[in-house]
């Protein structure tokens, strides 16, 4: 999720098949544990024993009664999957070998995601995981008038990679209560959606997305849309945090114009704001704030803490979301986000006014305001959002939108084009996968609670 200016296909390279909606039994599903904390000013922070689950798109899918693949390479077996409902009945997704196949390692309150993993049967690229509240339910975060904090190590993330931590408005059970065809649910990582309305999700609404499937792009007829709060998108060079809002509530399947597909020239007419309202210090002119040495205010060669605060109009959870603030902590020192000048005015957080001025200054369509802005984002936070952690490369525009000049056909000096110091030749997946297979991101010490309760002052 992601503040993409073009649709990104996020996929594991797996020799076997991926995705499905029945629950398989060939491999036991054992969720890696992850401890998080909930905090108050008066009581401090209390530990919660939770776990993570990998997205269903990464999983082996086979017939319910054996080992035959339902999906191999980028192609569905049409004898098993002549249409969506039949495919969901015929196919099951199985348990995951998290470390051996996907490079996912958890220990206590720490989760490490490895970029390239050579497993016994496959080579896997990247991963996407969700925080569980129980074996069959995702944890829902309701963060208005609260803050969300985590530690992160991006020192091993070069140009072209994105170690992301974000919230999406998925169903807590992964869609099992709404869609009878979905028997796997949150236990197997089903029900993903985001503001890009991705078409590469193999099963949506309990049915296979096999109709109209294009093997070359591994995309189907339908997309799956929902509100998205990108708390963290970053590598060692650049970072951004970005709310994306939609006119729909919760996970919603889309088709045609509602998806806002780039290929059809409808990016700005769909139900979701795909660009979002991003706060990237480099893009906003603060080029010495974030980077891989001690000369930067936040030194990405070392771990640090990220604090995101969701401020409301009346200082309670009942008020409208009015502001999204970012604080940092490194080496025991609290670091404020620097003020930046946009359109002749000074800002250091995301407000509706900031978004409106930024969109005008950068000559971008203001889809964020058109779809409800911060108030709408607050509505999603009221209803509850699922935590996603991922590591991925970009087959569409090579992550230039995050860490280089984008769009590359505009001069870097044009407002909003320069987003990081990476060259425009960087980020090609074939290059980063070959040159940086051991790249990784580590998220740790996740905590949430009252404003001012999750970090040392």
For the terminal residues, how far apart are their CA atoms? 31 Å
Our estimate of the beta-strand percent is: 25-35%
Parts with pLDDT < 50 across at least 5 consecutive residues: 2-20
Number of strands: 31
Features:
457 residues, mainly beta, 16-stranded mixed β-sheet, three-stranded mixed β-sheet, 7 helices
Walkthrough of the structure:
This protein has 457 residues and is mainly beta. Helices cover 11% and strands 33% of the residues. It has 7 helices and 31 strands. It has helices at residues 84-90, 98-102, 352-361, 367-370, 373-383, 400-403, 429-435, and strands at 22-23, 33-40, 44-54, 61-63, 71-72, 75-76, 91-93, 104-107, 110-114, 116-118, 123-125, 127-134, 137-138, 140-141, 146-153, 161-168, 203-204, 207-208, 223-225, 228-234, 239-244, 252-254, 290-291, 298-299, 304-312, 321-330, 333-336, 340-342, 345-347, 385-393, 440-450. It has a 16-stranded mixed beta sheet that branches. The two termini are 31 Å apart. The relative contact order is 0.20. Mean pLDDT is 94; it is low at 2-20.
